[in-house]
Write a structure and sequence with these properties.
single chain, 374 residues, mainly beta, Neuraminidase, globular
Length: 374
């Protein structure tokens, strides 16, 4: 299945050098807005030529529609990939028409979630779908675009490749309910590494399309929140919901979790998975609602939380205050530019250590990209 798109079909505003916020953190970081007007911006990464690429999950559209976890969502070809040239300040959508599902407001769209490159002009993108992938048929022909890996060449003429929703429906590696939501990808020579947040697994897709599960992330028992009215000490199962993966210097994959209900503050872990796969090993604990990971050039690990006060605060009172935490090689944790991020969706680190974060990552039209100079 292939869509032909017009490169540079629309333009995003880019503001060079406008300091919009100054934190009082350890290093006195400056936070600049370098792109605005994005629709649900999520993952971002550097291309081989040095430009910054951002995936936009879109704003849905007129339909067809279906029932989603939070209500009715409707399809529209509004997902996109935006390229930011950090040298010339040119910012444009270089691929458009990717599938998107969202409520009428465009909030919390589901569509393209992450992007990764290997070599010039060869990007892999994951397109999510929240729920049983067999229900994609409820959207008619439009539904077949979700739950896929997509290949995006320099021309922007993207095409669907591997149907990982079909893999979940057929194999269901974690043995739990059939559910899929592709959320993160690493493009490597001859293969792609994919996190399926719904299926709770880490997948490897070979060049010939063969899919294997490198690891699964089981439920954990956590204390029941008091508002459930259960006896003190009651524990309930919590879904893992892995959302991000980063390749470590040791060749292992580091996978972070958002966590499922009851979304405990401090309940998110980072796991280490051997390159060949195996049982995940806990690498770090004590985070909340992790949405992305990225390694810095000095060996620091940057951990991005979409809702530092927990997802119950986000969904319940629209408290989407996010946090970016630097974990130094010696394990010391420092929050970067505290108070500057709302519902962040992704983080990338330049070779010079400068940080880039998608901000307002669950909103249509108001998403931005921030640059943080530590």
């Amino acid at each position: 299945m292939q869509r032909t798109l017009n490169q540079g079909a629309s333009t995003i505003t880019m503001t060079a050098g406008l300091v919009v916020a100054l934190s009082v953190g350890l290093w006195g970081q400056t936070v600049e807005t370098i792109a605005t007007g994005l629709d649900n911006p999520r993952g971002l990464t550097f291309g081989p030529e040095g430009a910054l690429y951002v995936v936009e999950a879109g704003r849905g559209g007129p339909g067809p529609c279906t029932a989603g976890p939070e209500g009715t969502v409707c399809y529209g070809p509004t997902g996109a990939i935006t390229r930011i040239d950090l040298r010339s300040t040119v910012c444009e959508r270089v691929a458009t028409g990717l599938p998107s599902l969202a409520a009428a407001s465009g909030i919390r769209a589901n569509g393209p979630h992450d992007i990764s490159f290997v070599g010039r002009g060869n990007a892999a993108v994951v397109i999510g779908f929240v729920g049983d992938p067999r229900s994609r048929a409820d959207l008619g022909a439009a539904g077949s675009s979700f739950g896929h890996l997509a290949s995006v060449p320099a021309s922007g003429n993207w095409r669907l490749t591997t149907d990982l929703g079909l893999f979940e429906a057929a194999v269901n590696p974690d043995g739990d309910e059939i559910d899929s939501n592709l959320y993160a990808v690493i493009e490597l020579p001859g293969k792609q590494i994919v996190v399926d947040a719904g299926a709770n697994d880490l997948l490897q897709v070979d060049a010939n399309g063969r899919v294997v599960a490198l690891a699964t992330f089981p439920d954990r028992l956590v204390p029941a929140p008091p508002f459930l009215g259960l006896p003190p000490g009651t524990q309930i199962p919590m879904d893992a919901v892995p959302t991000s993966v980063a390749l470590g210097r040791d060749g292992s994959f580091y996978v972070a979790q958002l966590t499922g209900y009851p979304f405990p503050v401090g309940g998110a872990n980072i796991y280490r998975v051997p390159a060949a796969g195996g049982v995940p090993e806990i690498y770090a604990t004590g985070f909340t609602a992790i949405i992305d990971l990225a390694w810095g050039p000095d060996g620091s690990l940057y951990v991005l939380e979409i809702a530092k006060n927990g997802l119950l605060a986000g969904f319940g009172s629209e408290d989407w205050a996010g946090a970016l935490i630097r974990v130094a090689p010696n394990g010391t944790r420092t929050e970067i530019a505290p108070g500057q991020f709302t519902a962040p969706g992704g983080v990338a680190v330049g070779p010079d250590g400068v940080l880039y974060i998608t901000h307002n990552g669950i909103y249509a039209g108001t998403g931005t990209v921030l640059r943080v100079r530590p």
